[in-house]
């Protein structure tokens, strides 16, 4: 279903554009199986930024008036909202990581019921079919994700963290913020006390009668947790120190060097230059690296690995400094491998697209220390899209949604 290239992403966007207006607002909640055209299937591309949120919204707005495509634009902003929220509440991610780690350290903590559920043997036909679809394709429709999470937590009474981990290891669009916070939302943790209950009637209606499960929980009790620390502020953007030989390192959170240049005041991706004060420094080398295994202590699916690998190759094929200086795909995501690349290229600085809270941000923190110990600097470039929107994701989505017209305006859209 998903070819991991920017060209395939642009084709998918083009094919979906006619449906992104009123049709989407009316039909988006239906999941009528593999042939669905009522949703975009763009999330694996957006999640790796083979396509950017800005260009998707720009293309939709070029085709439809805002009142007609408002619903679709809002959905794209849900992705941005979740990221901005997690950025200000990183303890939620740290706890999730710790708890998942604890489950996988102790075999007894992972029950036989868990293994039945992820093996497609829960005894609930719909769940078993969705497990197969997720494992085979790396994708599930949004409404189906909601039903799945609700049945997992309230009917099968399995730990939400392991459900989120199962999704994260199999979804091509697996995303620290959207995934963790959506599972928390279903469980009644994200909006404290407010749960999502999947009902047989709703499932039957929106799957056009494909599924009508029996025996589902008919009530929910919201999960609880220790109070969270107060919100942190979003870290201030890095400043570029005086540097001479700079390398650009792409990673799986952001694989479009060209638009990074249009989206950041210092970086001109067309001439491969970084502007520092009044002068400009050449970007002399580019590389790309990723490690989908960072998503979980348990095994990440081969489908996710293959998609990430393909996306990396595709990004590298577009990111070379010149025909004679193509980008390098690094063989792994170890700091020592990046250091070797930097040494070969005689770099004194590495710039990277900023990564939101999640495994890549953790990996970049380790890399920053490793580079510093060898006298190299690392500077992150935050896209304008994120820098403008994230600070507004401090409360609920409905307050954030009010800011969308102003955010579009600031983006020139
Ligand atoms: C339990 C659960 C787990 C989820 N895990 C992830 C995840 O790991 N990664 C992920 O990208 N999305 C996740 N989502 C959100 C959503 O289900 C997917 O983004 C969406 O289904 C992707 O399909 P699409 O591109 O066809 O969506 P469309 O309906 O065509 O929407 C267009 C775009 O808007 C964004 N979007 C739409 N709905 C949401 C949403 N509810 N939250 C955030 N962004 C949204 C996506 O970028 C999507 O590509 C999760 C939702 C739930 C309920």
From TrEMBL:
Transmembrane regions: none
Claim: Flavoprotein is one of the keywords in the record: yes
Domain called Cryptochrome/DNA photolyase FAD-binding: residue spans: 72-197
Keyword Coiled coil: no
Cofactor requirement: FAD
Keywords carried by this UniProt record: FAD, Flavoprotein
UniProt-recorded name of the protein: Cryptochrome/DNA photolyase FAD-binding domain-containing protein
Provenance organism: Subtercola frigoramans
């Amino acid at each position: 279903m998903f070819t991991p290239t920017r060209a395939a992403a642009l084709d998918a966007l083009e094919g979906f554009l006619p449906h992104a207006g009123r049709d989407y607002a009316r039909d988006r909640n239906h999941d009528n199986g593999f042939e669905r055209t009522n949703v975009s299937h763009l999330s694996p591309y957006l999640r790796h930024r083979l396509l950017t949120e800005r260009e998707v919204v720009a293309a939709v707005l070029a085709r439809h008036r805002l009142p007609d495509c408002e619903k679709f634009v809002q959905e794209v902003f849900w992705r941005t909202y979740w990221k901005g929220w997690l950025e200000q509440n990183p303890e939620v991610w740290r706890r999730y990581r710790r708890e998942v780690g604890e489950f996988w350290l102790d075999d007894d903590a992972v029950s036989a019921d868990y293994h039945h559920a992820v093996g497609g043997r829960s005894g609930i036909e719909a769940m078993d079919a969705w497990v197969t679809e997720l494992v085979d394709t790396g994708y599930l429709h949004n409404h189906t994700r909601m039903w799945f999470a609700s049945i997992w937590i309230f009917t099968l009474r399995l730990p939400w963290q392991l459900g989120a981990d199962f999704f994260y290891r199999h979804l091509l669009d697996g995303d620290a913020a959207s995934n963790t916070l959506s599972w928390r939302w279903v469980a009644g943790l994200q909006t404290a006390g407010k749960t999502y209950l999947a009902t047989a009637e709703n499932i039957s209606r929106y799957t056009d009668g494909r599924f009508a499960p029996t025996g589902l929980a008919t009530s929910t009790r919201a999960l609880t947790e220790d109070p969270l620390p107060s919100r942190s502020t979003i870290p201030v953007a890095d400043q570029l120190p005086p540097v001479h030989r700079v390398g650009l390192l792409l990673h799986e959170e952001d694989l479009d060097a060209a638009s990074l240049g249009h989206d950041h005041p210092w970086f001109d991706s067309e001439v491969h230059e970084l502007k520092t004060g009044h002068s400009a420094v050449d970007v002399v080398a580019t590389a790309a690296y990723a490690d989908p295994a960072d998503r979980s202590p348990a095994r990440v699916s081969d489908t996710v690995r293959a998609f990430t690998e393909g996306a990396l190759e595709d990004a590298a094929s577009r990111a070379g400094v010149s025909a004679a200086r193509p980008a390098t795909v690094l063989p792994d995501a170890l700091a020592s491998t990046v250091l070797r690349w930097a040494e070969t290229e005689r770099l004194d600085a590495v710039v990277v697209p900023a990564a939101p809270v999640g495994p890549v941000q953790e990996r970049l923190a380790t890399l920053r220390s490793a580079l510093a110990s060898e006298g190299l600097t690392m500077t992150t470039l935050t896209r304008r899209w994120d820098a403008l929107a994230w600070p507004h994701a401090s409360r609920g989505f409905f307050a954030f949604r009010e800011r969308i017209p102003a955010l579009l305006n600031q983006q020139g859209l």
